[in-house]
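Practice problem: predict the structure.
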Amino acid sequence: MNGERVRVVRGWEWARPVRPVRREVLSVLPELEEGQPPLLFVPGFGHGAWAYAEHWLGHTAARGFPAYAVSLRGHGGSEPAPEATLRAYAHDVVQVAAGLPRQAVLVGHGAGALVVAHALARYPARAAVLVAPVLGGWATFGAALRRNPLGTLPAVFGGGLRLSRRQLFSRETADADARRHAARLGRAARRAQWQLLTGADPEPAVGRPPVLVLGSPDDRVVPASALTRAARRYGSAPLLFPGMGHDLMLDARWREPIDAILDWLVKDPTRGEAP
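Answer:
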């Protein structure tokens, strides 16, 4: 794409533009500019940019990559948006990515991976990484209902989706840290939660960027079979981290997945090399 920024705009999007909001964007930059692509981290539902600021932003910058994290509207320090949709969340990602100095790598976690998948249809990312991806559909709902019925059913009727500490974190994560992170969780908009279950699949990505899928086979939110399906969608196999929880960026072993992501980027997957 020669580095240019392209956004595909549909006619109905002109007729019904997404409402502008104030967005929280956190960043950590390398001490020395090494020409590496910036990474834009997108949190999942209920999480904000703070989830990446805990460990991954600083570690990414220390390895020479500019690191940014956005809080989707209604999350973290971004403006409240109880009416938000998946389209609005994807719009947040595209707008922030388009304002970065170079073509970005989009990294989405949980339902944030679905947001990234939608954003890829509108922004020519250098590459993308889907971390413990929740890509939606009734299979996602069925898995969530089996593993967490009391926390899942309220979301069907407009309430918030509630995930337990046991689902989010591994046993290796200190109880004090797990409680602290869980206390910061918010909730996604009702329409966005419903679209997670019933929405259409994302459109094809602009420019066919390389996509890495990773997660844990012991994730209590995303089963291993879902990781395999997600990776197959992008013509690859998932990179697995046994023993970790759903929130890999906050887990006791948080360094392992982010180092794997950065190692993959150092190999420059845009040249067609295998991860």
